[in-house]
């Protein structure tokens, strides 16, 4: 199946259950190799990024069993081998194997990670962090070897509060000798989820979720069972869809506090939400007004919901302004959105002005990246007529059973060849 076809304009009603967070699961699974015994991670989303990580673990002779959304990992027979390009290129988060293999074997040999085309996506802060812990980093073309006789705790200041660098350095430091402090650390909820998993195994991490994280090195990490937190970006994507087409549409199994920035912006536009402890019910109303959005690191408005918000803003009366401050190329979904009838102007690829209300018409469009693909899917759901989306592997990387979840609440959407 390589395309999604949607007949737009159908009201959506019922319940959508949110899966575990992709950006947590893709860090938890590599971290599992630090455990010297068998370990289980529950509520793992069924997405192709997890399949790619499973391939890398099997390549390293790690036993991994997936039973629905439970993943059991045993690395007692693990081999530390060079991770080939075709595996590490499959997803950005393969870089977490750098921190994990460095902590476990003091030796890493792999290629640069892959990922979407939303920006250059350097990993200099990760590598600088490993060097501060005493590792030697050698890069040749897109091949990296990282090695250390001993990893020693140190104070590491991140120039940018990078999610990946924060998690990767935290993983690398858990078995280092002495104490590591990460200053100007990222504060995303996924970082807390990983820190709690490592602490469940016996690590000594405090401060995760703040801008300063302390890791006191330990010798051994023992078995642990840990749950992936709900995916705030998947939940936000469905909240946006509910704001446009919901009739008593319930977005279920969520952590409200992780969605504050989006909830407040949707309410500012006029969306009515019935917010309970772990779900939200939305009924679409007729008039939404234009708003301004600026993406920031957590707890600011998440960059990963910027693209899904664009279709919503085409239905808001007035001119909305969207400023993307994290990634340099995260407006790739705009041309196809304009092709469907939107009125959008982009300034130096960092600011977009969306003039609403513009009706959208179904067209042949493509997913340019994961969240851009989600954005086109939302356009298709509200457009008049049929929309066909190609390159949908991007979407299936990060949204667990998105077609089935939408079909169950009344969307006319299907996978086609
Ligand atoms: C994570 O990417 C997420 N991916 C991204 O989600 C998300 O957009 C991003 O965090 C920001 O929230 C995963 O968790 C797998 P960063 P990451 O390091 O860790 C610069 C999605 O849609 N930077 O926080 O790669 C970087 O260029 C994906 O699910 C450096 O300069 O993001 C960017 O401008 C897309 N050097 C900024 O920092 C580095 O060494 C933030 O990047 C690292 C990052």
Q: Can you describe what's shown?
A:
- With 417 residues, the chain is an alpha+beta fold.
- It has two domains: 3-19 and 230-416, UDP-n-acetylglucosamine1-carboxyvinyl-transferase, Chain (Alpha-beta prism), CATH 3.65.10.10; 22-227, Enolpyruvate transferase domain (UDP-n-acetylglucosamine1-carboxyvinyl-transferase, Chain, Alpha-beta prism).
- The protein is 32% helix and 26% strand.
- It has 14 helices and 23 strands.
- It has helices spanning 22-31, 48-59, 85-88, 96-105, 124-132, 163-173, 189-200, 232-245, 260-269, 306-314, 334-339, 370-382, 393-398, 402-407; strands spanning 3-7, 12-17, 39-42, 63-67, 70-74, 107-111, 136-140, 143-147, 155-157, 179-183, 204-206, 212-216, 225-227, 246-252, 272-275, 279-283, 292-294, 318-323, 343-347, 351-356, 364-366, 386-390, 412-416.
- The strands form six sheets. A four-stranded mixed β-sheet has the order 21-22-1-23. A four-stranded mixed β-sheet has the order 2-14-16-15, covered by helices on one side. It has a four-stranded mixed β-sheet with strand order 4-5-3-13, with helices on one face.
- Strand 15 (272-275) and strand 16 (279-283) form a beta hairpin.
- The longest helix is centred in the middle third of the chain and has 14 residues, at 232-245.
- It is globular, with a radius of gyration of 21 Å.
- The model has no long low-confidence stretch (mean pLDDT 96).
- It binds ligand EPZ.
- Residues 22-23, 26, 92-93, 116, 119, 121-126, 160, 162-165, 186, 303-304, 326-327, 370-371, 398 line the site of ligand EPZ.
